[in-house]
Amino acid sequence: MDFKKHLETSWSLTLQFIVPLISMTLVMIFASILTLGILAPVTTAGYMHAILLMIREGREPKVQDVFSQMKLFLPLLGFAVILLIAVIVGFAMLILPGILIVFGISFGCLYMIPLMTDKQFGLIDAIRESISISLQENVVEHAIVVILFMGMIWVGSFVIIGCLFTQPLATVFLLSVYEERIGRNLQDMPLREK
Fold first, then answer.
1. Domain ranges of the chain
2. Which of 87, 110, 136, 160 maximizes the CB count within 10 A of its CB?
3. Could you tell me which residues come within 8 angstroms of residue 169 by beta carbon, excluding any fewer than 6 positions away?
4. Contact, 91 vs 97, CB < 8 A?
5. CB 153 within 8 A of CB 166
6. Residue 66 has what DSSP assignment?
7. pLDDT tens track of the chain, all 194 residues?
């Protein structure tokens, strides 16, 4: 995998569409905060789908795209609740199990939301396929993608203004990698039922 190419693509696309990306990021953050996190998973899905279309078609993302995947509200909310409970239990036992759960979910489910919005997979199929893609070929490369993605978001989380730039940059990077991986792994695969 050519990480330099993905980082350069992410940088140039983020700069090219910086105003709509920052607007979408602000709306996604405010919607998540105002609803106490209830809309966070589904707004993230809309956000990712808009950025995927930006990468593929050069389509300028729009603020309303953040709410374009509301059909996924219940499955993503259910997944988020189960994930939250697992992380709380992991951190309550000791800090290390909580960290391992977060890393395991991040590693295995990195492509779950793009698969649900792009390929119209159901939640379970998207999780299975995401894990399959993560474990195919070079696992170390995938671990580097996870570290870079989480690292970009983590660095931006120190300052709210930084988050407005690093969140789109990290998401464009992730979806650029997704495009490469999905082309390699699902090219001849028929769409699955929801």
1. 3-182
2. 110
3. 10, 11, 14, 152
4. yes
5. yes
6. G
7. 888 999 999 999 999 999 999 999 999 999 999 999 999 999 999 999 999 999 999 999 999 999 999 999 999 999 999 999 988 988 888 788 888 888 899 999 999 999 999 999 999 999 999 999 988 878 899 999 999 999 999 888 887 788 889 999 999 999 999 999 887 554 434 443 33
Q: What residues contact 141, with CB distance under 8 A and at least 6 apart?
A: 1
Quick check: pTM over 0.90? no
Q: What are phi and psi of 111, to 5 degrees?
A: -100, 10
Contacts of 123 (CB under 8 A, 6+ apart): 75, 76, 78, 79, 112, 116
Query: What is the Cα–Cα distance from 89 to 61, expressed in whole angstroms?
Result: 38
Please give the single-letter amino acid code of residue 165. Answer: F
Nearest alpha carbon to residue 47 among 17, 27, 74, 18: 27
Task: Give me 123's structure tokens.
Answer: 């939640």
Q: Which residues lie closer than 8 Å to 98 by C-beta, 6 or more apart? A: 87, 88, 90, 91, 92
Residues in Cβ contact with 153 at an 8 Å cutoff, skipping those fewer than 6 apart: 163, 166, 167, 170
Based on its alpha-carbon atoms, the radius of gyration of the chain, rounded to whole angstroms, reads 16
> Residue 72 is encoded by which pair of tokens?
């996924």
Length of the chain: 194
